[in-house]
Design brief:
The complex is a heterodimer of chains A (519) and B (305). Chain A has helices spanning 47-59, 130-141; strands at 33-40, 63-68, 71-75, 88-94, 101-108, 121-125, 151-157, 160-165, 176-179, 185-190, 193-197, 214-218, 227-232, 235-239, 244-251, 254-259, 274-279, 291-297, 313-319, 322-325, 334-339, 345-346, 354-355, 358-365, 368-374, 378-381, 390-393, 396-405, 408-418, 458-460, 476-478, 487-493, 498-502. Chain A is mainly beta. Chain A has a 7-stranded antiparallel sheet, covered by helices on one side. In chain A, β27 and β28 form a beta hairpin. Chain B has one helix at residues 20-34, and strands spanning 10-14, 37-42, 45-51, 57-66, 69-75, 87-90, 97-102, 105-109, 122-125, 128-129, 145-150, 184-188, 191-192, 203-204, 206-209, 234-242, 249-261, 270-273, 276-280, 289-293. Chain B has one domain (10-297). The chains are: A mainly beta (519), B mainly beta (305). β22 (345-346) of chain A pairs parallel with β17 of chain B, so a sheet runs across the interface.
């Protein structure tokens, strides 16, 4: 047997064991980050908030999957009138880039009356019956010009016309429908907004998580607050954020809405203070291709999102074809971490340790939860940090989106911002600092993140010697690849620490690192 | 994060002992076979010295304390005066023992028993002190670090929890143990661990859902820390304890020649992890199993010696 001799410190590189959890934690980075701030109110329209949600998610790599058209109504509760009617039955105002376009639809009887004239007047022949009058009005409104260029009109009853905006998303919410007050009323189009879809990981990471998220953001006419919904696996969870200031953290595979004003004991509507929809990174050792969750804070007034402590969260989880709603504790959603039942797990100096955030989800296995994947862009801390508090780790900002004291722990989500940590109640400038070092490296597996982007045609920054800026755009870079194109035109992705290449490298291409870019 | 593998881990089987004194002699020989050296002779036994790859020292007294008991007690080799608990192994001529030892650690158990009131298992030694790797480097800043877990034979009703029954000190073992204050020993830089509450005691950290254990209410409300598809997770065997009641549970280092597997396994079950042949030291703990290396170095992994 070799003699026992004192040797130096243990190595930090390499790992002899599969599935090892590193005490220092590792981050699975998504290609894009985005961080947005918005305000929703009980008293004002929320077009701006809905637009910010759209813009933030687009910046995070999501796609606009659908324009949600605003819908309004013109009602004639006592009928549209006939024969002798001569009046403005409805006025439609369409917002345009050059100002409002106004259309006064005026009934007249050509057998006894001259066609009405005047600024913005659209003459409409009154019918012999109310139904005939409605049909004539419909024909004029739906014409492919005038107001008809911005909306469609269909009869939704003998005394009602439904107006659907052709203007995309929230733009349609600005259309006005004004009745004459005597025999017609207008209900302005509303709830126009956006539907966005997260990216699939299929074919990218391991087996590839095929789960995707749909987020809708509309103005919420019913609540007069921003209306959000999150859908995974065909299950939709509606959400009306409580009035106030909000933050939105997003990457390609998840989005987290949380109030910048944490609620306290005695507050109500805590249920509406937090919404998080996420699809997981599924390591190759997990035979799973669909995993995600939608989480809200629980309805206990003093609770804020936890890492799995009972009563901390209300979670819908989706694993394969298995959907579970509302399970809590160890058999529900929770973060896996080094665990002791009382005090905080700490390093030799008493400092909290950061860990890879493995996610337990109920998945139909004898009622127990199983580790179904990891969170993107997140770290689990063994310390019970303050909700919404911010930290700078490896030069990137992380915000605490969940915390608990028993057992202690908190969950950090990377905002994509760089070296500008704010406070729990204050937000940060959105733009990254002019210069910053490389993003945090992943220990999950070579080629997963950072060093080589798994995404076709995209590559993360690997060096602090150069930061993408406008000077990168349009340049041609020669890169040695095993196959595929050898020259690329660079396109800047301003919201992320990333450049895109055109044409795209073939799927599965790995760059023959190391190489450098001289710009 | 590498693992504190310092093979060879020498296996000695002990059987057919004629007395507690004979058992003590054979136990001492097992330690010496594993790389411990004799520091002194004491009544009924020896003081053995363990030396870690990082240069840390500990002394371990092994002696026949009465006609039916062999005691094992770690104490300071650097003059701090720190003394660990005198774990007790009940001797009977019918008992067989297995001892895995390396130059700064040991794992003693009876193949036929998980844990019992009479004292059937003991493990301890010097851990690999954190030298970075995401944990604050403590190497060189402390004068000594050692730990031990073992049975507590004074109680007529309970055995002490140890990694033979639980990797930590929680509920969930299948054997009905309890945490008895003072049976887990930890020494850090000349200070003994405190024992005012069970969860402050030395323990091997487990990985599990970050929710309060429901085992006190119903074990059926907990979840095994397994991957979807029932795959297990192997992770370092961090030994940790607090410096004061309610204070953070500070990681002191890794148990050499061991790791934790997140699945429930019966004692003595064979396993392979990272290319090493291992054996289950823990007997049917809900949240995981301490695996111990079974011998010679393999071609892969982190060889500390």
């Amino acid at each position: 047997m070799p003699a026992a001799t004192a040797q130096g410190p243990a190595q930090c590189s390499g790992s002899a064991f599969a599935n090892a959890t590193t005490a220092d934690g590792s981050v699975v980075l998504a290609p894009h980050f985005a961080y947005g701030i918005f305000t929703t109110s009980d008293a004002t329209p929320n077009n701006a908030a809905a637009d910010l949600v759209r813009n933030t998610l687009l910046a995070a790599g999501w796609t606009l999957s659908r324009n949600i058209q605003a819908v309004g109504y013109i009602n004639a509760p006592f009928g549209w009138g006939f024969t002798a009617v001569y009046n403005t039955v409805v006025t439609i105002i369409i917002p345009t880039s050059s100002g409002p376009a106004i259309y006064h639809y005026v009934f007249y009887d050509p057998t006894t009356q001259a066609a009405p004239t005047g600024l913005d007047v659209v003459p409409v022949i009154v019918g012999a019956t109310s139904a005939a009058s409605q049909a004539n009005l419909l024909a004029h409104i739906s014409a492919g010009f005038g107001a008809g260029g911005a909306l469609t009109a269909v009869a939704s009853g003998p005394n009602q016309i439904t107006i659907t905006s052709k203007l995309v998303g929230t733009l349609g919410n600005a259309i006005q429908l004004i009745g004459n007050g005597s025999n017609s009323t207008g209900v302005n189009p509303s709830d126009g907004g956006w539907e966005l879809q997260s990216r699939t990981q299929h074919g990218v990471f391991g087996l590839g998580n095929t789960a995707q998220i749909l987020i809708t953001a509309t103005t919420g006419v019913a609540s007069n607050r921003l209306a959000l919904s999150a859908t995974i696996g065909g299950v939709t969870i509606g959400f009306n954020p409580e009035a106030g200031g909000w933050s939105l953290i997003a990457d390609d595979f998840q989005c987290c809405f949380f109030s910048l004003m944490p609620f306290h004991a005695g507050d109500i509507y805590v249920f509406n203070s937090f919404l998080w929809a996420s699809t997981l990174y599924i390591p190759p050792n997990i035979p799973l291709s669909f995993a995600g969750f939608i989480m809200q804070a629980n309805s206990v007034s003093t609770s804020i999102p936890s890492l799995g402590a009972p009563n901390g969260n209300a979670v819908d989880s989706f694993v394969g074809g298995y959907h579970t709603s509302g399970s809590v504790g160890q058999q529900g959603w929770s973060i896996g971490m080094y665990h002791s039942e009382s005090g905080m797990v700490a390093d030799p100096t008493g400092t909290a340790i950061l860990q890879t955030p493995h996610v337990f989800l109920p998945c139909g296995y004898n009622g127990e939860s199983r580790i179904c994947g990891q969170l993107f862009d997140a770290l689990a801390s063994s310390g019970p940090n303050t909700y919404a508090e911010q930290f700078t780790i490896a030069n990137y900002n992380y915000r605490v989106i969940a915390t608990q004291t028993d057992p202690p722990g908190s969950l950090f989500l990377c905002t994509g911002e760089v070296s500008n940590a704010g406070t729990a109640s204050g937000s940060n400038p959105k733009a990254p600092s002019p210069t910053h070092p490389a993003p945090p490296q992943s220990a999950v597996g070579s080629g997963d993140v950072s060093d080589v982007s798994p995404y076709t045609g995209q590559m993360a920054i690997i060096s602090s010697t150069s930061v993408p800026d406008s000077t990168w755009v349009g340049r041609t870079i020669i890169i040695g690849l095993a196959s595929g194109p050898t020259s690329f035109t660079v396109t800047l992705v301003p919201s992320a620490s990333e450049i895109e290449f055109t044409p795209a490298a073939p799927a599965g291409t790995t760059f023959n690192a190391p190489f450098s870019l001289s710009l | 994060m590498n693992y504190a593998i310092s093979n060879p881990n020498t296996l000695s089987a002990i059987s057919s002992t004629s007395s507690s004194g004979d058992f003590a002699v054979k136990l001492i020989n097992a330690f010496i076979a594993g790389g411990w050296t004799v520091a002194a002779t004491i009544t009924g036994g020896k003081t053995l010295q363990g030396l870690s790859p990082q240069g840390y020292l500990v002394w371990c007294d092994v002696w026949a304390s009465d006609a039916s008991t062999v005691s094992i007690m770690l104490h300071s080799a650097v003059g701090s005066g720190c003394t660990g608990y005198a774990h007790q192994l009940h001797w009977d001529t019918a008992y067989g023992w297995q001892v895995l030892a390396h130059p700064c650690g040991f794992f003693i158990s009876q193949p036929l028993f998980g844990a019992s009131l009479s004292g059937t298992s003991c493990m301890g030694g010097i851990p690999m002190v954190a030298a970075g790797c995401g944990l604050a480097a403590a190497l060189g800043s402390v004068t000594e670090c050692w730990f031990s877990f073992g049975d507590y034979s004074s109680s007529p009703f309970f055995y002490a929890r140890s990694p033979r029954s639980n990797i930590d000190v929680g509920d969930g073992d299948s054997l009905g143990g309890t945490t008895l204050i003072g049976t887990e020993t930890g020494c850090w830089d000349g200070h003994m661990s405190t024992y005012t509450a069970p969860w402050d005691s030395p323990q091997i950290l487990r990985f599990s859902p970050a929710s309060v254990d429901q085992v006190g209410v119903s074990l059926a409300n907990d979840s095994h820390p397994l991957f979807f598809g029932e795959g297990f997770m192997d992770y370092p065997a961090f030994v940790a304890w607090s410096s004061a009641t309610g204070a953070p549970i500070q990681i002191r280092g890794q148990v050499y020649n061991a790791c934790v597997r997140s699945s429930t396994m019966e004692r003595n079950a064979p396993a392979v992890s990272g290319g090493y042949n291992m054996i289950s030291y823990t007997d049917s703990y809900f949240w995981g199993t301490l695996l111990v290396s079974m011998g010679a170095a393999a071609a892969v992994g982190n060889i500390a010696y």
